[in-house]
């Protein structure tokens, strides 16, 4: 008998139900745990299910905090879906790994030779070894790429394959990924998290490390540089933050120390590729691309692409830039090729394929077509050209009418279809609902060119289906990933503890130029950060005043509250709000205040500002240190959880605002501790100073320009001081006399006070004059001119003049004038900085001569 | 016959363009019945980066980039060519039936052919398959069907198809743009030369016959008594069919003619997208306006089509 506590800890290995006829990775058909799993299973059982669940949650937390995401197309509500990691890895024995490794290397060599032939001599076509329509009808065959492969020992730099294990325990290749394989960054991140979550087990198990693969990748990419082989500039080309694997692009760029770029960060001049940085154009030697090849050059490939670099293919043709993998390599992802690989392996290598592909029949041939048509319901039917929706059909799920339609489609264009054997992948133990349960799995492996040969990552990315009965595995449908542990043969293998990979410092100034895009986002991170803080502080002040009013029922409180509520609408520009909204909203401001806190769809609201702040920060995910990103995540996560999605009442808002302000301050502190004082810092700082000045001026204009009775004025002044975190310093200096001139002195003109307008302008002026620019012209730039004017005008003003007033006016005219002028100058500075430094935002247009003039926009 | 072709494209921009990259297929290619004696570009402002190469289909291609700010771009190509008369319908004996040709392209993998035949087959085969702007379809096959009578020689099939397109369709420059889908052209029965060429190609490919798109010029001759207007000519387009033993034969469905000695070939490819005469990407520029002028000047020889020919 087991004691109840033992039962609670039971991980349920004895209930592990494998499926009949399906190979399982952990247990034999006699339900015995395989020897190479035994040690691991023992460790799990010792740990118990509660502890494993605890560690699973810990893994999820780490992944979320690190910003590990997988975006699903069309899922705009949740731009960033957290990556899911099962704490139980897939174990692969040393003997089996030897087979897989050799098979993948052979396959990579073979595909490399096929690629070279298709874009070179085309002997395979001329000799009839590959049917012409198989190649020509595949959308991955890009005519303009013919003859553009440069003289390199290996063309296919990075290769990836999806493997499954069939019923008899043999590994099969499901498909090949050859143009821009994804997943090795996730594999690395999974391992990093596992070292935190299961450090003890990982230490005791002899697991191959992954770092060698990434060193090989780094070397392999440097190797393909055609110039500057010693110190090539390598960039990672990403489609941008909306891409499903954007996290990985940013992660790899940060890990490998490359610049992360989007298409319009690059430009082609004189047939060379250049990076548009704040310091000017920088030569690019190698591009690690994560953009599909047909999108890479709108001039020669897809003209509607906004993701590419105009003239890129011409730069390749002239041998001025190397791309991994070369443009056109998606031709290797044609599933019809699988049917011809055994023959081609004998032709090129005089070898048999070590790793078989899933059985594939290409319908472009009579016999194979007939077979497929006769066996539709036992096969998977795929189009050779991948499409979002219709590229894959499982024959056994089709109705009679669907089958007829499919038959007709195949007969109309048979060369566009293949039939494939339906494979039932093996199951692996997965920790689901506190128990170990079998789930279908696909293993993705990664290979990188290393000199004349290939290097295989000893590990990989394992993905499992979420539900028991799923046989298909896909990230899009919300699968779960696993680390993959390749067990070492020698027990002497060093323990596989990885160093935390992320860069500790924000920018590595020596090698990494700041792209104009990154500069743009840094500027806006600064601006949204300050907006968030200003709104949070003002909202908090208004809430306090509202509580005063409820408590003391004093009309002075009501008038002061109304002034604050007005200023809240002005500062957030959420009109009509309290300014032109219903008058009773001033008496009962709760709904509007809550809306300003939680309504993300309302521009100007706190939720919208936080969202914009996080989005800007996410766009440059590669630039943030681990800790800095965690602070970004905390700001967003908590606000969303508590306020945006939470059922909050107005009384709770106060403490959440306190917490939000602390979070914002933490982010500011981290950046000033970790950022080197260079262009990036100047941009972030400029954004912050500019926005803090604007927000402060907006507040002063909404509160202090108007004349009030002394009693009300005292309240308003106190609220303004509190809202700008200046009450303490004011009281220390001026005791408790509330005096408008003293408040203005402190908030407007005191250059030593970090919350004053003068302080912001002084720093902004310093930042702007330090920005990189062409200094040969000996002339002030426009943004320099504007900040000098704003700063000087402010310094030359004096409080007595500003507060001069003629009796018939209700406002301080000169004060209002100064504040309005300064606002205008600050807006001008924002515009000129954008024009001078954010050159990536210049739009391109297509010019085609044959479009009739009347169609022109 | 000798011609001088002057093709000028002018872009005007409302704001400065900082950089533009372009590809031009404006230099006539050489082949058995056409020799390009000389072809040169005049580009203003002069490109700092200019390179001539040849594309996948053997057309002449120029890449050039203007890397300094400009508000106007003028691209002029001047080409002198000698044209030898093409074969006319009555000079050709009907050869293989369309079914034989269809069978040849469906079933031949190329194993038993010599090197020359193989090259031809390899080249022709890519023109049977769908291309970016032309997909074989049941609708196109339906339209073409009356021309594809059993055992009819392919040459007769194509001549008949060309005649039917000429008769059934109205030349109407306002009805379509380059982006109008082929099936819409078919439904509307209206279009311009490139629509008719695409249509014929789509019909032939729907029956497994290789057909390609040809871009070029056509000499126009003013009506008697009218002066010849410089720059009044236009780009033109037609199609060609591969007929075993005869090779590639040109057909102009806009005029219901087999080109003889007034069609000047620029380039060929699977469809318009492969042979766009001039395309470019400009950075900046604001709004742009575009004007094109083409002048086909006969340097020697007589005759020519009348103006009503279009």
Automatic annotation (TrEMBL), chain A:
- InterPro entries per the record? ATP-dep_Glu-Cys_Ligase-2, CP_ATPgrasp_2, DUF403
Circularly permuted ATP-grasp type domain location is 89-465
Give all residue intervals belonging to the DUF403 domain. Answer: 514-838
Give a single Pfam family match: CP_ATPgrasp_2
In terms of PANTHER family, this protein maps to: BLR2978 PROTEIN (PTHR34595:SF2), BLR5612 PROTEIN (PTHR34595)
Q: What is the name attached to this protein's record?
A: Circularly permuted type 2 ATP-grasp protein
Automatic annotation (TrEMBL), chain B:
Q: Boundaries of each Transglutaminase-like domain copy?
A: 185-255
Q: Which Pfam families match?
A: Bact_transglu_N, Transglut_core
Protein's name in the database: Transglutaminase
Q: Say which domain of life the source belongs to.
A: Bacteria
